[in-house]
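Q: What does the assembly look like in three dimensions?
Context provided by user:
Components: two
Sequences:
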Amino acid sequence: MSARTATAPDPEVSRARLDRLQALVKDELQRVNLVIVAEMQSPVELIPQLAQHLVAAGGKRIRPILTLISARLCGYSGDRHVNLAACVEFLHTATLMHDDVVDASELRRGRATANAVWGNKAPVLVGDFLFSRAFQVMVADGSLEVLRILSDAAAVIAEGEVMQLLTANDSTTTEDAYFAMIEAKTAKLFEASSRIGAVVADRPAADVEALAEYGKCIGIAFQLIDDALDYGAEQQALGKTVGDDFADGKVTLPVAIALAKGDAAERVFWQRVLETDDRRDGDFAEAMRLLKKHDAINATIRRAEVYGERARRALDRFPACPERAAMLELVDFCIERAY
Amino acid sequence: MSARTATAPDPEVSRARLDRLQALVKDELQRVNLVIVAEMQSPVELIPQLAQHLVAAGGKRIRPILTLISARLCGYSGDRHVNLAACVEFLHTATLMHDDVVDASELRRGRATANAVWGNKAPVLVGDFLFSRAFQVMVADGSLEVLRILSDAAAVIAEGEVMQLLTANDSTTTEDAYFAMIEAKTAKLFEASSRIGAVVADRPAADVEALAEYGKCIGIAFQLIDDALDYGAEQQALGKTVGDDFADGKVTLPVAIALAKGDAAERVFWQRVLETDDRRDGDFAEAMRLLKKHDAINATIRRAEVYGERARRALDRFPACPERAAMLELVDFCIERAY
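A: Here is the predicted structure of the complete assembly.
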């Protein structure tokens, strides 16, 4: 087990964790990138142009890495995990494209979004293409079990995205509703990504479920930290912008906590800023003041740490090895982003 | 073979053709509808609400009927074709939802579109859900071959939709580009729908390919007639509105023919109305005059008749039976809509 300290960690130490993980799967990750570039091709040139725009922007590739490292942890020595990791990234990319259309987002990974450059039409359709292509690659892989896992995940993700739509601008959103939403929209694909690593390695059900639990808990922790970062956790080195969720009226856990603990006057404030177009100068500062008053950001990070600990425990059944060590460090990385 | 006359047929005769076909598969079609209603359910209530909105609006269900009738023509006596027909309709419905967002359409099947009622966000996400659910149902069916056919079709449809985006507002669009687009966006799903009917019946490749050819040619004819109807073929009994494609600047075959045959002044007209926002009163009437001058609508219908004849010939290898007779009548129905 990697040791964690209660004090804020060094950002360079944190970044080094991710670097070590990426180095461990470097060759396979390069092959995943080759598959991604090969499979996004189409005689319709706008498709690779758009796909390239988002894929080239990078991202941490955490989901495909989960598939690769889980397969290796399970002793898998074949090639299938590379293609399936590309499928996972395609499903994720398709979701991002549709997400950005739905949110009318302008920036993603520090670049203009596809919808900001090409309008809404092409990203809807290219998202559909990437989604279909992911299933074509899975069919070529030939495992009905993998197809089941990823088609189930895709349906649950869509449900989670609709839940997000419904809870936005709704100040009555509960913590339970928030967790149901992030388990569906975010954690399900993390869970599926690590699960298929164990499935291709043909491991017994208990190992498959342990890796699924690891992925799910990492995913929840990742989203909790993302939502904390949107209210400006201490450092912004990772390129997140602050206040997007607030501007969109999204009820994330920090807000749900402050809402639950707030008095009547505070609830009036939250109702106005979340549910109406009546936004005023100083609203974000006031929101931040209320989150601080109710310790809502720290409470969110502590919830992430609980899920991080569950993720670590899920790896207990696997023997110590470089893969397990890297997966433990990934837990730390996901949470340390908040500091 | 059903006899066809060169003169315009009686609309009641035409409608009776579709009625006979639907009557032949009535029980199975009712079971398809039950599967559709059951599979569109989700704990996220907005999903069945939106799906129901489009599904309840009806539609002719031609694609699932193709799966059902093809399976029966092939002597299939199991249940799988019912679930797979529902998959086909889900893929079609998902495409329609995304289409209507892309086109900002207000009406579909005589009702307000989902995007007109709920905005663009929910239909993008509910389309994704229906798409995923279709793959879940295919996985439960368990045939990798069917999964291959429908994932291939889904990718090609998305390519066709992007082609449509690129050819809209482009007066240099050729007939070839038009046919490539409609083969992808429309005919591919017709082809896949009838193909899987033969596949579940486990028929030899030549029969599978014959039914795929039938579906493809019906699909092309269907789209050609649709595009002719958009310029007001003689009767509007089937509820099509006129002028939508013109308003969207879509270069369909009637326009491509008039463009190719037009003189310099006509090309200036088409460039203005297709490529710019400079639309004037009387433009649609002028477009209709040019289409008539170059016999473009009739030429489009004649092309549809050629594909109709190809569809009929594809059925030659099958013995005479009620299913084959109904499939021949479906060809007539698809083309007679134009009169």
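Follow-up: The radius of gyration of chain B is 20 Å.
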